[in-house]
Amino acid sequence: MTQRMKAYAIAYLRNVRMGADIVEYLERIDETLAPYDGHFLVHGATAEQIEGEWEGAPIVIEVPDYDHLRDWYESPDYREILPLRTGNSDGVVIFVEGVDRKHKATDVLV
After folding, report:
1. What's the confidence (pLDDT) of residue 47?
2. Quick one: which of 21, 23, 89, 109 has the fewest CB in 10 Å?
3. Average per-residue pLDDT for the chain
4. Which residue, 95, 72, 96, is CA-closest to 82?
């Protein structure tokens, strides 16, 4: 049986315009994640810039697998609040599947 890997929504948000819409988004997002066993791993923490350019807030959400991630993002509850964020911030969001703890960098060469 193939082990399903955890999946992550990673956001890099900039120019977040705090106001009633963002506050409502923040107040409601956790309830949209709950049915998909999703939770924040990183949420707006101050990032130490080591390389390149960075101005923004990092956000990482973890869910059990890629299907849960896609289902959460496409859920009516999340789609209802999504414009509250996208209309009040600039940024990039990506989805990515994780690797297991035994993964080595050279595994991508196979």
Report:
1. 85
2. 109
3. 93
4. 72
Locus of tokens 């107040």:
27
Structural domains in the chain plus CATH codes: 18-97 (3.30.70.100)
From first CA to last CA, the distance across the chain in angstroms is: 21
The CA distance from 60 to 41, in Å, is 5
For residue 86, report the phi and psi dihedrals to the nearest 5 degrees.
-65, -25
Pairing of strands 90-97, 7-14: antiparallel
Does the pLDDT value for residue 48 go beyond 90? no
Q: Are 10 and 66 in contact (CB under 8 A)?
A: no
